[in-house]
Amino acid sequence: GYRIRKEREAKLVKSAKSAMEQMLDKIKSGESKQLAVIIKADVQGSIEAIEGTITKLSNDEVSVHVLHSAVGPISESDVTLAKASDAFIIGFNVRAIPQARDMARRDGIDIRYYSIIYDVADDVKKGLEGLLSPELREKFLGYAEIRNVFNITGVGKVGGCMVTEGIVKRGSKVRLLRDNVVIHDGNLAQLKRFKEDVKEVKDGYECGMSFENYNDIQVGDYIECYEIETIAAKL
Hints:
By secondary structure, the protein is of the alpha+beta class. It folds into 2 domains: 32-128, Translation initiation factor IF- 2, domain 3 (Rossmann fold, 3-Layer(aba) Sandwich); 138-228, Translation factors (Elongation Factor Tu (Ef-tu), domain 3, Beta Barrel), CATH 2.40.30.10. It is built from 5 helices and 12 strands. α2 (44-55) packs parallel to α5 (117-128) and α3 (76-85) runs parallel beside α4 (98-107). The longest helix is centred in the first third of the chain and has 27 residues, at 2-28. The N and C termini lie far apart (58 Å).
């Protein structure tokens, strides 16, 4: 049974590859214009909703092709697939693992993070219109890892953090990531260094952080810090 299964798997890989090659040939020859996407999300329901929403945007001239979709963080194999097929990657409430992030930067692969399905549809629509702008409305600032959790009277839980990339800024927006999955999206309540309020903390430094109206933080969680930028619409 094992040998037959292996042969069958090899055949499946071969047929999948040839289907992808056929698709690429069609696009190259100009028969069909396709926007290839890879979807990674926190739950299966999100994937189904995104697929349902974006495939409706296809018409005779242009279509959306979902190359791959799965639950979980964005991996190196997702980036490899995106590179091979000129696709962009949609991360819905999930993030790329560090190795995949580095690989995407190196290979110029577009990874886009979302938490609202409408925004995914909006970007895919622009992509189909040939207007997918690399400028995002959201500007990534930095990551911090929670290394200790303190209970402070009158404040609640405060994370003793180490900034591991970029900077964190007071007043910025934050997401709490557990195993590369977004579990909270909100605002930073406090940013301190040695009990003093500070405006920002850079990579390699420790700080204390707490969230507005949110306390479910654990050692090992990551805090993603970002700002929303207003970018003038381009036609």
